[in-house]
Design a protein that fits this description.
With 194 residues, the protein is an alpha+beta fold. It has one domain: Nucleoside Triphosphate Pyrophosphohydrolase (Alpha-Beta Complex). Helices cover 27% and strands 27% of the residues. It contains six helices and ten strands; from the N terminus they run ββααβββαββαβααββ. It has helices spanning 22-31, 43-46, 89-101, 137-142, 158-161, 167-182, and strands at residues 4-5, 17-18, 51-59, 65-70, 80-82, 110-116, 125-134, 150-156, 186-189, 192-193. A six-stranded mixed β-sheet has the order 5-3-7-6-9-10, with helices on both faces. Strands 1-2 form a two-stranded antiparallel sheet. GO terms for molecular function: hydrolase activity.
Length: 194
């Protein structure tokens, strides 16, 4: 499934980004009825906002996980990133994967939804991890970073990556690997399944 950014004006954000096909999405929006208005002026601006991000669990044939090395942080991350305004986490993940490693990845099942508390300047968020599949040796060889924000990428076992990733990401990826094996999506909070 291909994600897209709608160029037509809808009653929601004029250009939402979603993985639902455009015709179905437009029909669904129309069925919702007229745009909601604030019953109490200014209330929408006072409701806390949560961030969301989409990441891909991409593995090689040995079960090693693909990590990217950002230039702006001292930790490894999985391919993906923060969703833009009115962009779905899956669309954000597909966009970021294409930007970061230059491949159009067909994301599989949602593996983990993980709530992460506020950390410094970063508000609390929902982190979505989707199955990015297992790459062939030819696909692995062809991988290149395509983003100025990255120094590189590497496949590592989760244990080898542990000293180079946040403990919460380690826990989230443990859950994602288990979910990929069992076919069961996991809800977690700070990497702890609930």
């Amino acid at each position: 499934m291909t994600c897209w950014r709608n160029e037509a004006s809808l009653k929601t954000d004029p250009k939402p980004s979603t993985c639902v096909d455009a015709e179905t999405f437009a029909a669904d929006v129309a069925l919702e009825g007229p745009p909601e208005v604030e019953f109490n002026p200014g209330i929408a601006g006072r409701i806390p906002a949560k961030g969301s991000a989409g990441g891909a669990l991409v593995r090689d044939r040995n079960g090693h996980v693909l990590f990217v090395t950002p230039r702006y942080k001292p930790f490894l991350y999985i391919p993906g990133g923060i969703a833009d305004a009115n962009e779905s986490p899956k669309a954000a993940c597909q966009r970021e994967v294409a930007e970061e490693i230059g491949i159009e990845l067909r994301l599989g099942s949602l593996l983990v939804v993980d709530w992460v508390p506020q950390n410094g300047v970063w508000r609390d968020s929902h982190q979505f991890v989707s199955d990015g599949g297992v790459l062939t040796p030819e696909q692995v060889t062809a991988l290149r970073t395509h983003d100025d924000e990255l120094d590189g990428m590497k496949f590592l076992s989760l244990d080898a990556a542990a000293p180079h990733i946040h403990p919460s990401l380690y826990r989230r990826l443990q859950l994602a690997i288990e979910a990929a094996e069992t076919g069961r999506t996991v809800y977690a909070e700070f990497g702890r399944a609930l």
